[in-house]
What does this fold into?
Amino acid sequence: MIIVMKNYATQQQIKEVENKLIELGFKTHPIYGEIKTVIGAVGDKRLVDTRVLIDMTGVDSVIPIMKPYKLASREYKQEDSIVDVSGVEVGGKEVVVFAGPCAVENREYFFETAKYVKNAGAKILRGGAFKPRTSPYAFQGLQEDGLKMLAEAREMTGLKIVTEVMDPRDIELVSEYADIIQIGARNMQNFRLLQEIGASMKPVLLKRGISSTIEEWLMAAEYIMLEGNTDVILCERGIRTYETSTRNTLDLSAIPVVKEVSHLPVIVDPSHASGTWKYVSPMSKAAVAAGADGLIIEVHANPEKALCDGPQSLKPDTFGQLMSELQVIAGAVGRSM
Amino acid sequence: MIIVMKNYATQQQIKEVENKLIELGFKTHPIYGEIKTVIGAVGDKRLVDTRVLIDMTGVDSVIPIMKPYKLASREYKQEDSIVDVSGVEVGGKEVVVFAGPCAVENREYFFETAKYVKNAGAKILRGGAFKPRTSPYAFQGLQEDGLKMLAEAREMTGLKIVTEVMDPRDIELVSEYADIIQIGARNMQNFRLLQEIGASMKPVLLKRGISSTIEEWLMAAEYIMLEGNTDVILCERGIRTYETSTRNTLDLSAIPVVKEVSHLPVIVDPSHASGTWKYVSPMSKAAVAAGADGLIIEVHANPEKALCDGPQSLKPDTFGQLMSELQVIAGAVGRSM
Amino acid sequence: MIIVMKNYATQQQIKEVENKLIELGFKTHPIYGEIKTVIGAVGDKRLVDTRVLIDMTGVDSVIPIMKPYKLASREYKQEDSIVDVSGVEVGGKEVVVFAGPCAVENREYFFETAKYVKNAGAKILRGGAFKPRTSPYAFQGLQEDGLKMLAEAREMTGLKIVTEVMDPRDIELVSEYADIIQIGARNMQNFRLLQEIGASMKPVLLKRGISSTIEEWLMAAEYIMLEGNTDVILCERGIRTYETSTRNTLDLSAIPVVKEVSHLPVIVDPSHASGTWKYVSPMSKAAVAAGADGLIIEVHANPEKALCDGPQSLKPDTFGQLMSELQVIAGAVGRSM
Amino acid sequence: MIIVMKNYATQQQIKEVENKLIELGFKTHPIYGEIKTVIGAVGDKRLVDTRVLIDMTGVDSVIPIMKPYKLASREYKQEDSIVDVSGVEVGGKEVVVFAGPCAVENREYFFETAKYVKNAGAKILRGGAFKPRTSPYAFQGLQEDGLKMLAEAREMTGLKIVTEVMDPRDIELVSEYADIIQIGARNMQNFRLLQEIGASMKPVLLKRGISSTIEEWLMAAEYIMLEGNTDVILCERGIRTYETSTRNTLDLSAIPVVKEVSHLPVIVDPSHASGTWKYVSPMSKAAVAAGADGLIIEVHANPEKALCDGPQSLKPDTFGQLMSELQVIAGAVGRSM
It folds into this structure.
């Protein structure tokens, strides 16, 4: 940590900051410049709320040097992590595709969709049973009936199952059905949920909050990992910006950034980011080209009948074509599919 | 709702959209322009996910006309709502000040702070017992012990109590102690929590999410109100923007906007928005001048010892001075304090 | 255009709005709903500032139906435009790479870089002679000496030349040297510059403003095109968001969006967006996979000696490797390189 | 400047960074932590592009300590600057109001508006003669005819005149008429324009760019001041965020931030920020309460006839009422009007 003193800070003020640092358990190394003095503070004190220093007289700013997360960092674990989802490896050489409808709703369409995505090469079936919806008037999901349909579809197709949990009280129930549990963007900082998922030992798909920094996202992963569960897959799903021509702005740069600072696998959700199916294919290809470990794509056998997010769902044939195009892209960046 | 057709839409496509609208329960009114055709669809169908229309061939865009919230809207209730917090009225002529430390931690400092803010004119005491923290390594709150201290401080000072709930399972416990329950920015779209607070009948202080639109914020209020609890106070606390010289950007324009579209009271939290105590006084005055119904301000008897958000807390004497300055501003805009 | 009336608008208010519309040259089509009345106004009146309507009593909102740009729109010209840059076609089947240093500075490094990028397959050489810099203390470019070096490098390598103009007074001079003129992000709404470039008939590389919407970007293109110059290539270069781990957030979704609403070619600048060379390769591949018509990449023979943007420049060998990887990606999306 | 080395940086890498720093003219002070080494570099080297350091092997990040602007900084000049606009002092005890229509257009309305705002207490008359417009199809201003009307209105009322310059070639002409020249938000980083205004010695009203940080804004002021012109007044006019219920988000926190880091006066434009006249009064009061040195408000004798920005203009009577309310607010914060 570096404490930058104001230009006109007195010797007495500098001394008081040093004393405070020593009290907090740091070793101090002042550097006296012509204009400014800065104080280097040596010590790994993640638990100290060092913002108290900024309030001391003569202090201009406090600059952290250590990243605030540890278990999620590349410095802590240098090799890439591979998360095993009931036998499907995410984070290895293969680019893994998660696909399915936004919500589990109509039995017939759901099984039809499941078979299609299986045949096209998806490995994991998505489908929401508990749905977070901006409007209280919107369809909220089939809940346990949805989970049962997911399990049935797994039985039928061999696909693994991912579904979302919104409430800590549902973790146990959902864990009985799902192979991997999704934490949605709106719950990325629902810390109780993170802690209890962390204690559950199920693999977790952790979506980035709609306005979360990459650092906050990794801190959310840290919450889970600190409880013992290290099977975390990150999912970039678009961030909120001023641009309105897409629902959110897919931040594909997050992929190389995450790969640099963390060892966790990262996949991309082009469907929620763009909000319209037309942009899903180009953005899927871009994600794989940028180094994503996987994709989660909305596919619906009959999007016009969907109760949720129909407009951003691919029809099965479009999805099938995309999957074959993605294979070539994956190959071009040294991955398989 | 207005459906805008593409320039080259055919008669057949227009007909199909009309049929779809009729199927969804709307009456249709096509307008044939020289270049474009638009179709007016009459009906108040909040439950219909009309996004399905955008996916139809020949459709360019779908424009909603009705606001997506109802109970929270000014159109539903034209007069201002006043929320009664155990006898303190928020939303009336008086500008109500909520004050206290970020978290309840040290017994001595807490009671000292409570007495100070009472004497300076605050009506409601804030203090977190359950703390949402970005870092799992940070202080997480005293939980029930904190609630007990809050109740003790109420006993001692007559101040009403506001404190945050992060988990639906804590609502019952917190309701025994608090006069008004806070939903924090990170939980503004924790829909389960909203619904269960909505069923609890305690007054609610609903903070705006860090990147929520005003519309989404009112939809969150709608979640609560739809369960029967109409005692909702909105709280603007800064939004996330690209500017880094303050922690968040306090969006004071939200006050006149909310006043125009909703009947709910709205207060402002200048402490979390700015992240540094120096900006709290000017922004508090600005909030009252802009028409806020109240303020929630962090005050700590000894900010340098605070385990949470010390740097943004006012010292008691600064707070006292601010309170007397605010009285003049309140008077200037026809309010009392 | 649709005028939405407030719920409680009177017949008289509706009549007055209709009269105003007729005065402005529109035909009116009111639709009376149970709750709201909306008025359809038929006519293509881009010149009318219809915001005056929103101020009329009883009006809730005014919704434009027509896009505000015309010449740049896909509706005006359905087939893709190809821009001829002294014989190099941008917007056709081939993905065209523009490469070179941020600024023309050191003679030796510049020519060395030019030869390298030529050999690696770039078609157009970039290099700034007039540099817009945030700080008045930073290197501002070699100006005409830089232009001469650019021309020399063209002579030597056969590469075409792109360079930036910041001031209308320099257009004539720069046009003598450059094959295509760049309008930088900071000047995207320097309307005088746009108009005079529009009159110059040189091909233009129009960068997106750092916080411009796609619509504003196309309006800037419209400024140029309206003067008669239709040879406009758009360039996505990252937008300003709250995320700080990259300099800007590269908005690759802009590619499919632009392709849908406009006929103009669009290329991507991954160097300025990311601000660090490590992210340039993955983002370049992603851009081509998403359908970009070209890339503009910073390459410097000796980045550590660069006076401008060294840290984001690729070294020649990294660039060479990227170019061969890009060929495979281009092939995978039906393009050549 | 602080150079943070990566955890696993070698002694050799640390040595090379030190050598590079010495070569750039810094004195080095390495601090060896248990996990990380950081190197303090002493020297005020604004001219060095130190980003080259970040590219060296073993370097994690480079942290600047000095602010990038100097003449505009509070550290350079501790007392508040007062800018004299032909006898009207901005930045002193008095809150100064600039008012008038967006554009000078209709002779009769313009003089009527000028007289009104004079009588209501405004000191400076605004009115655009050269208008930057997003659309090439919109009204672009009366140019020299507009300047003449401005001068005539000054003659008639005694008000001082502010008007915008968009092109360096117009500075001389506009300087003949205006008392203070406005640089609009879109031109805040038109560096040629800044430099030539800097050489002109006319007072400057420098609007903040729509997505500029406060630091970039002060760097723009530095461009002007470095040429010798220190009469710069800053103007906050709203920033671009994701929120769409106002045209931009007025960042009133910028006032106390600017007051802390700079000695320059700062005024606020609530009209362009909100985009609708209804929000202008509350935001004007908020701005004064937050410590603004002035306001620039759009007033139009007949907003419904305005060719530009009618919907955000106050009518004379609303403006008159606002002016009397502002006096009370100004008094409450120790200012006069």
